[in-house]
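>> received
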Amino acid sequence: MFKILVTGSDGQLGRTIKDLGHKFKELEFDFKNSSELDITDEYKINDLFSRENYDYCINCAAYTNVEQAEKTPEQAFKINSEAVKQLAFLSFKYNIVFIHISTDYVFDGTKLEPYIVGDETNPINEYGKSKLFGEENIRQVTPNHFILRTSWLYSKKFGHNFYRTILSKAKKGAELRITDEQYGCPTNTQTLAKYIIEEVILGDKEYGTYHVTDGKPMTWFDFANQILLEHGLDKNAQLVLDRNYRTFAKRPKNSVLN
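>> returned
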């Protein structure tokens, strides 16, 4: 029996792990949302870890607002870097395996082929920088870690994400103006949650950094079209290619992960 802490459990990945977790009788999960466990509170985490005999900590807590991170980067770094370092250090202190979710945004997007784990990182926005610093902090303080980089994460059931937003707007007949200037691999939270449970916790993988995606490269426009096709909405939905789409944060043109 493994005892597993899941931080940020109200997010789409945390809720997906909760949805799947009951199927694994050999695993005991302890789900903590941000109000129950603030990962920036070192003393609360230390108290929790000293009382509970966890085997694994899956860190799903993160600052993910890419646009806002450009305006208030200190908050992104506080959660994605500084808090992650403390969480990883305390995991090492209490002999807990640390599993952390990272991102394709640690790369600059200039490579023409898919990125492999060993490629040079070079984030071009504050969110990506904060996540990369978090990765580096983990490697400094605990060897007993898994860093799982994923991309364009979405859940069909939980949270606010591209998939659910496109579907909701399409059903209302709203015009969908979507860019095709970025390539990535949309990844279902089910894929990542199953990988964490079956391959990392119950598997025999060595500690280190891995790329986990659904493996099919596409643009945001392609992804939107796929969602419409899946629900039979492609004939009536107003899907418009928008090549003038602008964001405050720079985003990698190609963030396909191999």
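>> Residues 73-93 form the longest helix (21 residues).
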